[in-house]
Amino acid sequence: MSYVLEFFLGYTLPRISNFHNGCTKFQDLQQIGLRLSYGKCSAVQKCKKIRFLRQALNLELIDHADLLSFPNEAEACDGRETDILPYVQTVRNFPEEELIGKVVMVRLDLTIVLREQKKQQSPAARVISTIKYLHKAGAKLVLLSSWSLRADSRLLKLEYVAELLSSELELKVIPVELGSGFEQSLREDKHKSSILLLENLSQFKQEQANCSEFARRLSSGVDIFVNDAFFQSHKILASNVGITGFCYASIAGFHFDEQMSQLKKIIEMNKRPYFAIVGGNLAGKAAALLFLASRCDGLVFVGDAAFQIMHAFGLPVPMELVEQESLEAARVLVEAAKARGVQIILPKDFWCLNDYYPSRMKIFPANRIIDGWKPVDVGPNTLEEMISVLSRCKKILWIGAVKFSSSHQESAGASKLASMLYNLSQMNCDLIVVGKQACETFIGRSRHVTADMIENASIVWEFLKGRKLHGLLALDRAYPFKLNWDALYANTTLPLVVDVGSGNGLFLTRMAKMRKDWNFLGLERNEKVLVLCRMFHLLLPVFLKKKSCSSVTILTWRFSSW
To answer: What family classification does the UniProt entry report for this protein (predicted)?
Structure first.
């Protein structure tokens, strides 16, 4: 079925018939020069046996009559895979010859590069590899970032940061102020092999406001924009959203691509049982936890969030540990988990500390904490149960700190949990660790990294809440994206009929009923037709007793220009 992709890319098609609303027919068409530009795609829902995937040339798979069935609860999706995490163009698949001689602006997170040790496969190493790859490809590089490492006042000076980058990259980095000096430096031949570093963006109010004029100034003379600052994607900034409107290509760097792949793994249900260990507090995370409850087989609560869930179960909890603003969210979450049969694991006991005896710790059952004692860590019975339950999992998400807000020391429970998770990751268990404290604890207890790690927890919570990652959505869509044509057509060797402007697909289904020796492909641009098209094909088996339309596939695309 590869010739279907050849149709989109303008290659030779040996056998193809093209219908447009049943009016025109072209036999043995040899060359079709249909070219679609980068575009911004939207989301559709997916059903039980089919995935609505964002794919080649901004196409979205809408329906396949023979495979459709109503989605079950476990596999229902609210569009987050395709809407918030679309398939975007990356440095990895961007034509290298297109980089030669081009001015490429790279938006990176210098905080990562400046403070982190450059271990292999670390975020800093991936950011550096993006810069070196673009430089080696022959691009003229301009670096753009914001940083505020106040522990070292020298890092606030542009010249000093440029020197550090020069040392890390082993390339000459020239500090440049935004304005006429920036444009002049781009034009000067003597700097053609050097890398320019613009001023710290944190000092410009226009950056946070996504000012269009400021974005235009940033992109002056720039051809291609590369975003490698994934942790800023949930923000609408001039340097990650506004700037894309002034560059002919906007793509993702190596670090951005890697973090996006790790984020996708959180919502995949490819391995079961899938449990999530949730730490920290519950405030503001209700929507995210409800989404996790729809995905996971179990939720393990530690940290301050555990008390809110215990209170929702009706268990006795000291009122000073209860967040009044989180009571309703905890109640709704518990009801949703019960309705879906999601197992909830709560602490059975705690290590507690008395303010009057700071050197003395004592174990209390979870439902009998004496006044004056504050929980600082989970107890041994809790750890034993958690280890017993999690040892049976094939996939685990650890998000948030295990210790409690009243604890001023490293949690011993977190260390033991990290050791256990490391051992599980060696035994075919997929592990995703989210949050700075969780990542540091895991790295400190493991001999080498065996988990997918996302240090910035805020962007993960925003994603789980269903918020759009604007910095990601501003990038160009990737192509080509391969479809599993064998799953779409019973016989991929049959001639292909393409209906451009297929609407609700009625013409195609009627043709498929008449000509069972052909395969049919419908293309429809109007997104408003999606709902009607979906309803039509869900009802199609009622009207067609035979599986006569198993050869019908309908695609939709949206694009910004031809």
So the answer is: Belongs to the phosphoglycerate kinase family.
